[in-house]
Amino acid sequence: MSANDFNTPITPELVKEHGLNEEEYKLVLEIMGREPNINELGIFSVMWSEHCSYKSSKKWLKTLPTKADWVIQGPGENAGVIDIGDGQAAVFKMESHNHPSFIEPYQGAATGVGGIMRDVFTMGARPIANLNALRFGEADHPKTRHLLSGVVEGIGGYGNCMGVPTIGGETNFHASYNGNILVNAMTVGLADADNIFYSAAAGIGNPVVYVGSKTGRDGIHGATMASAEFDDDSEEKRPTVQVGDPFTEKLLLEACLELMATDMIVAIQDMGAAGLTSSSFEMASKGGVGVELWLDKVPMREEGMTPYELMLSESQERMLMVLRPGCEDAAKAIFDKWELDFAVIGILTDTKRMVLKWHGDVAGDLPIDPLAEASPEYDRPWEPTPKQDRIDPESISAKVSHVEALKTLIASPDLASRRWIWEQYDHLVMGNTIVRPGGDAGVVRVQGTNKGIAATTDCTPRYVMADPVEGGKQAVAEAYRNLVATGAKPLAITDNMNFGNPERPRIMGQFVGACQGIGEACIALEFPVVSGNVSLYNETNGVGIMPTPAIGGVGVISDLGHHATIGIKRDDSALIMIGAATGELGQSLYLKTIEGREEGAPPPVDLNAEKRAGTLVRELIELGLVRTCHDIADGGLLVTVAEMCLAGNIGADLHLPEAGSEIAWLFGEDQGRYVIATRDPDKVLNAASSSNVAAVIIGQAGGDAVSIDGGEKVSLSELRNLNEGWMPNFMAEAVQ
Amino acid sequence: MKSAVILFPGINRENDAIAALEQATGTKPVVVWHGETELPKTDIIMVPGGFSYGDYLRCGAMAAKSPIMRAVAERAKAGVTILGVCNGFQILTEAGLLPGALMRNASLKFICKNTHLKIENADTRFTNQYKAGDFVDYPVAHHDGNFFADSETLDRLEGEGRVILRYCDANGVVDPATNLNGSQRNIAGIINEAGNVLGMMPHPENAIDPLHGGTDGRNLFKSLVEAAS
């Protein structure tokens, strides 16, 4: 396409290539009142892509609870904002970069991290913590090592250079991700509560300013790619993956924060998916104004770029701002200091239209609101997921000893230590990391205070697959629990909804069910959704991923003098289980790993019990009665205790119950539970009893082994080798 | 006691450095932008860690050519205490203020973890609060910390007591198994001939608070203050 070729004929093939179906194109014609030109068609294409328009998911996302007294900004902005007291706010969001990371793992993951950090600092916040939720194919799939290695390097390459500590996350392996990995990146930022920046453009005649990197041809149609299923030719889409430059983003961060300390900015929006198109339309639509863009003024990386390419490029490290009139020179001086491009590329108008100018000619002229707001919204047909039967614990008899089962589980891909991953991330930069990766949630100190922000990401896709409603609840409940386990008060979540093709009723049913479960849990736990992202069409050749609504949770520790970590600290402590054991083996890792069965109903979540247990545990930590706490999750009680022993390098002896299934007791994944270590068990048991929370002494810390009723045991050093050994050994095999 | 922290584009541990210097000296350091040509008069200059110029070309290579580095070199010559940590160490070697070079880690991976270090020489202005043979625990966070120099230079560094820190294990054992990044002779930090410039890969500034999990780094900064007062 040549620079001035606005007259490319719009054929049905071209419309189809742009991902618009017949009805959608009819709506385009209606809105335009004429046939669009190629630039306009490209704009409709990205604005109405699933990725940008949420057309399949909107109806259900609207049902999620988004309000609480401490919510300053819910979904709809670049990131969510919550009040954390003392005039400060936490700004956070999680976002997927799944398709690009499968095609080009290093750059795909790196630009995912860069994009989410931009979303956060656009709001006026300095990023202070990164997390990531990763799902790869099964360990022995030929691509898994290559993808894992590239993704981890990419995340580290970007986050480390930006100087933002990566303090937590999660990694799963499952065959359903063989052809479609998930890379979800989360950033938490810190801002002054009275200095948050928004994207609504205002002030007719105000200059529209472009800052950051130059625009190149990378990432054109990225949003459209992210809105389609994969097939065998997907690797040919590599040119649609953007290339990251973390150094430039570091400069952009510092320059933006410097500018934000003045009063020159009216509105600001990062250029993420669908680049200049999405940012300019969103700013104009939210502000109810029109924009005239002078595309020839956009800083360009290459010669011969067309308006079409400039509007659709997803080049990274760029921002669009509306400044107060007359501030251009002072603002430019800041960007000059940081050696970044700064260009006035347009002006706000009262036409409510987007007029694209190219050397004086009109290259496109579109109404803003109909495009941004009247995008299609579908009520897609959906089928509920059939319920599975509960697994009767008595039906499972031990094939191996309990300790053998522990050894197998703790060295399995699901439970093996992720140290190999997080040691490649700088988790200490900024000097405020208080709880490092490897625990329940990461904790960073708020600079200059004794307050901490805890953050975690959680989802158990196999539960969501088996029962989307319970699985959705569980993802939120586990995030809640992981925050509580550090002593934090859970405040809000961001949700990253990764699902297959929503045009299949079964998949849509998973989405609807998960939204229902998430919503119920958010209400019961007073843990609203403040931001999120939806990634659909995670399928390859018609095979969908397990439904994966990754939940990023954020909480606050008011006094870091009283927080908890998972490692047992003293060998004279009693181990107490908080929460009731019900013996849920359905979808458990024991059933999968030892019995080879991925089946049964997942553990149900009793949200009221969850709230009571969480409140109790947090209070015990706040009072200084408990410094050691770990939630019981994947693998069950025995794995939880083993992890606490390994982290503290102190052994433990566990008691078996007098009656009932030993397997269910040791390996059931019943929800709403924690293990704490304390030297004052009576106080804890009394507190639990008056809070109506089940609590029972399950063992005693001490020694250098994990044992059961003083009998069968495994030494900590053997356990450590098994747990720490799996991933380095697995990845070493990647060396050709 | 006055100190300065040099800020290059892409540096990201300047606040960690500022916190450590402020804790030790009682005064907030002056931050000097790389484009400046003059330094304020200070007792201590710290070149902090990060990714100056994105570590593009070679770690520290571009920062070493920044205008401020001429002033830093003059101060080095004048005997002012200069501490380069991580990227700061790389910048000081690229600027020729310290011998050797920092290559990519032998594992080819970024490494962020705590490591034990053996204090080889406690008779310096950087280590006077330790005893020779002490083991300390600081974190490292780098992709290019693999110290290299030719054997003649290494022998000279050893002979002149200029190897200050070596990677070791919890019992002080220095051997290939405890050499986390492939550095020649496990070297983690060296000083210049005059003894006023230290370059080191580990981060003492991230071990100054019980909430960091350890405070072994405090004595390094305390040493600087002790020597300068």
UniProtKB/TrEMBL annotation, chain A:
GO terms for molecular function: ATP binding; magnesium ion binding; phosphoribosylformylglycinamidine synthase activity. It catalyses: N(2)-formyl-N(1)-(5-phospho-beta-D-ribosyl)glycinamide + L-glutamine + ATP + H2O = 2-formamido-N(1)-(5-O-phospho-beta-D-ribosyl)acetamidine + L-glutamate + ADP + phosphate + H(+). Residues 76-190, 438-557 form the PurM-like N-terminal domain. SUPFAM superfamilies: PurM C-terminal domain-like, PurM N-terminal domain-like. GO terms for biological process: 'de novo' IMP biosynthetic process. It is an enzyme of class 6 (ligase). GO terms for cellular component: cytoplasm. Substrate binds at S96, H97, N98, H99, R118, Q242, E314, S315, Q316, S535. Its EC number is 6.3.5.3. Mg(2+) 1 binds at E95, N533. ATP binds at Y54, K93, D495, G532. Its main location: cytoplasm. Pathway: Purine metabolism; IMP biosynthesis via de novo pathway; 5-amino-1-(5-phospho-D-ribosyl)imidazole from N(2)-formyl-N(1)-(5-phospho-D-ribosyl)glycinamide: step 1/2. Pfam families: AIRS, AIRS_C, FGAR-AT_linker. Residues 204-358, 573-704 form the PurM-like C-terminal domain. Mg(2+) 2 binds at D119, D270. InterPro entries: PRibForGlyAmidine_synth_PurL, PurL_linker, PurM-like_C_dom, PurM-like_C_sf, PurM-like_N, PurM-like_N_sf. The active site is at H51, H97. Keywords: ATP-binding, Cytoplasm, Ligase, Magnesium, Metal-binding, Nucleotide-binding, Purine biosynthesis. It is found in: Cytoplasm. Residues 17-55 form the Phosphoribosylformylglycinamidine synthase linker domain. Belongs to the FGAMS family. Monomer. Part of the FGAM synthase complex composed of 1 PurL, 1 PurQ and 2 PurS subunits. Part of the phosphoribosylformylglycinamidine synthase complex involved in the purines biosynthetic pathway. Catalyzes the ATP-dependent conversion of formylglycinamide ribonucleotide (FGAR) and glutamine to yield formylglycinamidine ribonucleotide (FGAM) and glutamate. The FGAM synthase complex is composed of three subunits. PurQ produces an ammonia molecule by converting glutamine to glutamate. PurL transfers the ammonia molecule to FGAR to form FGAM in an ATP-dependent manner. This is Phosphoribosylformylglycinamidine synthase subunit PurL.
From TrEMBL, chain B:
Keywords: ATP-binding, Cytoplasm, Glutamine amidotransferase, Hydrolase, Ligase, Nucleotide-binding, Purine biosynthesis. Its EC number is 6.3.5.3, 3.5.1.2. The keyword ATP-binding applies. The active site is at C86 (nucleophile), H203, E205. GO terms for cellular component: cytoplasm. It is found in: Cytoplasm. The keyword Ligase applies. Part of the phosphoribosylformylglycinamidine synthase complex involved in the purines biosynthetic pathway. Catalyzes the ATP-dependent conversion of formylglycinamide ribonucleotide (FGAR) and glutamine to yield formylglycinamidine ribonucleotide (FGAM) and glutamate. The FGAM synthase complex is composed of three subunits. PurQ produces an ammonia molecule by converting glutamine to glutamate. PurL transfers the ammonia molecule to FGAR to form FGAM in an ATP-dependent manner. This is Phosphoribosylformylglycinamidine synthase subunit PurQ. It comes from Thalassospira profundimaris. The gene is purQ.
